[in-house]
Design goal:
about 210 residues, mainly beta, 6-stranded antiparallel sheet, 5-stranded mixed sheet, 16 strands
């Protein structure tokens, strides 16, 4: 049986993020209809056609306080947790289709950098909804609700999730989690992750 989920309008979502209103995202949703929707999951950090839209510029100026951002997408088919990641800043997600996010708290990572997946909760993000996912929220690829798959806009500070320069000297244990620029990741042993991923999720590889 899959993990039960609430919606992002539930008060329980408030510790992980918030619903963002006041932005007209119709053109962005329309452009996303042209993006690929594979049988697995694809993530593209930056898409010029999405970044050129007026709403993207508006979000950069207001939601990110005029810091440069990248507008990309995560699309595909997925039903499992596989890993958790976090950034040093909030992330904006826009659900093009209904999708489910499995979320946790960075504060629950142990001093040994393990994490119990049993502490996570799942939330439905209805199509057309804009949400902020807080910097301390553990998250990973969305899960699809309908068999047609999911499409999700992902807005982050510029260069997030791009290739990382190797860290030659580690200052502390968290450095082992640094997987890409501005991306700290803890994987599950059943997640099918690359060999360089830090494996530290204890418990079940959650399924929706």
């Amino acid at each position: 049986m899959g993990l039960a989920y609430k919606t992002v309008t539930d008060p329980a979502f408030g510790v992980y993020g918030k619903v963002v209103t006041g932005y007209e995202v119709g053109e962005l949703l329309e452009k996303m209809g042209e993006t690929p929707l594979p049988a697995d999951v694809v993530y593209v950090p930056s898409v010029k056609e999405l970044e050129a839209l007026a709403v993207s510029d508006e979000m950069e100026k207001k939601l990110f306080g005029q810091m440069p951002v990248q507008v990309g997408y995560c699309n595909g088919h997925n039903k499992r947790l596989n890993a958790v990641e976090y950034h040093r800043n909030s992330e904006i997600n826009i659900a093009v289709t209904d999708l489910v996010l499995i979320l946790g708290k960075q504060q629950d990572i142990t001093p040994e950098y393990t994490y119990d997946s049993g502490k996570m909760e799942a939330f439905l993000v209805p199509a057309g909804t804009v949400i902020e996912v807080y910097a301390t929220t553990l998250h990973y690829a969305p899960c699809h609700v309908e068999e047609g798959g999911f499409r999700c806009v992902v807005i982050l500070p510029k260069d997030t999730n791009t290739d990382l320069e190797p860290v030659k000297e580690m200052a502390n244990g968290e450095d082992r989690l640094l997987f890409a620029r501005n991306k700290w990741l803890i994987g599950h042993k059943e997640g099918g992750l690359p060999s360089q991923a830090y494996i530290g999720i204890l418990g079940e590889n959650l399924t929706i």
